[in-house]
């Protein structure tokens, strides 16, 4: 296995953080949907998603 340069390590690290972030968002959204179907939270969530992407 070839030795990785620091840049690729950083990219790998960012990639794992990104996956973790998506995973947390997914769990968070599921918990909100199960506990209560609150329109306000859903609106805030969609607004933040639109703002991010």
From TrEMBL:
One GO term in the molecular function aspect is:
proton transmembrane transporter activity
Tell me the compartments it is located in.
Mitochondrion membrane
What are its GO cellular component terms? mitochondrial membrane; proton-transporting ATP synthase complex
- Answer yes or no on keyword Transmembrane: yes
Q: Which UniProt keywords apply?
A: CF(0), Hydrogen ion transport, Ion transport, Membrane, Mitochondrion, Transmembrane, Transmembrane helix, Transport
User: What membrane topology does the annotation report for this chain?
Assistant: Single-pass membrane protein
Main localization (coarse)? mitochondrion
One GO biological-process annotation of the entry reads: proton motive force-driven ATP synthesis
User: Could you name the domain of life of the organism this protein comes from?
Assistant: Eukaryota
Q: In the UniProt record, does the keyword Repeat occur?
A: no
Instruction: Outline the subunit composition.
Output: F-type ATPases have 2 components, CF(1) - the catalytic core - and CF(0) - the membrane proton channel.
- Entry similarity comment: Belongs to the ATPase protein 8 family.
Q: What is this protein called?
A: ATP synthase complex subunit 8
Which lineage do the record's taxonomy fields give for this organism?
Eukaryota, Metazoa, Ecdysozoa, Arthropoda, Hexapoda
This protein's gene is called ATP8
């Amino acid at each position: 296995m070839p030795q990785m340069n620091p840049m690729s390590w950083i990219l790998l690290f960012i990639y794992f953080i990104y996956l973790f972030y998506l995973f947390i968002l997914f769990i968070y959204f599921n918990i909100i949907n199960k506990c209560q179907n609150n329109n306000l939270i859903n609106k805030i969530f969609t607004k933040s998603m639109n703002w991010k992407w």
